[in-house]
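Local shape tokens

___
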Amino acid sequence: MDVRQIEAYQAVMTYGTTSRAAEVLGISQPAVSKAIMTLERSIGFKLFDREKGRMIPSAEGHLFFREVQISFAGLAKLRSAAARIRDYGSGDIRIACLSAFSTNIVPNAIGRFHQTNPEVAVSLYVRASSAIRDMVAANQLDIAIAADEIDTTGVEAVPYATIRAALAVYPGHPLEHKAEVEPADLHELPFVALAPEDTTRREAETAFAMHGAAPRIVVETAYSSVVCALVLARLGCGIVDPVTATGYLERGLVLKPLKPAIHFRTLLLFPPKKKSKLVEQMAKALLQERESLSLE
């Protein structure tokens, strides 16, 4: 069997007669009849019963038609995918981000992207920054956001967002009513720390050392969201990304400004290859979301 025979059969089933099918396909009626007879010989059963010049679909013909419709739907999907690849370079897009941006910035940016690209499938992965970097380098992702602590060898990296950190405290904490928190205020206080490799933690430790302050670390975690949860569990205070902390404020979390300022810095990552139009549009959506939140 070949595609032309299947097209002739599908046309007869859809339009009811060989003459109408021939008209739609732009071929002769005998050519349609011949294609269907050849198809029947190929598959080994009759698709139509011939009665007084009419072609009546057989029971087997109805069953076969279902499979043909599924196949034609698949072909239509392939044509659509080919059109997207022709116009944009890809029919889908793979994006990853660190946990801090997975419930706000990136979902909102995907929403922006979807408004102009409703047919494009988006796959979102939430990983640690080091894993994201490796996935980008291996060409498993099209675009990603990671913390600036990663090794950028083998990937294209551009600055994305710089966010001023805040100190998270629980209601009733000794620093709850301080207008600004300085390193000396944290000396020997129970402290929920970010992971040792985190550049924000290293920046904070530099500030602490300059002022002779040494908070008492009780827990370490790689995620600002977990810091927020641990602070609300009254294990201590901790430095967090305010964007991530937003969802915890209604649960009583209190954010205090830090002096001197400490920052979270992130990078936009791409594989070392030419960007498709879809990737460029996703990058634009991410930048628009950054600007809407007044991030640097």
User: Anything to note?
Assistant: The chain has ten helices and twelve strands. The chain has a mean pLDDT of 91.
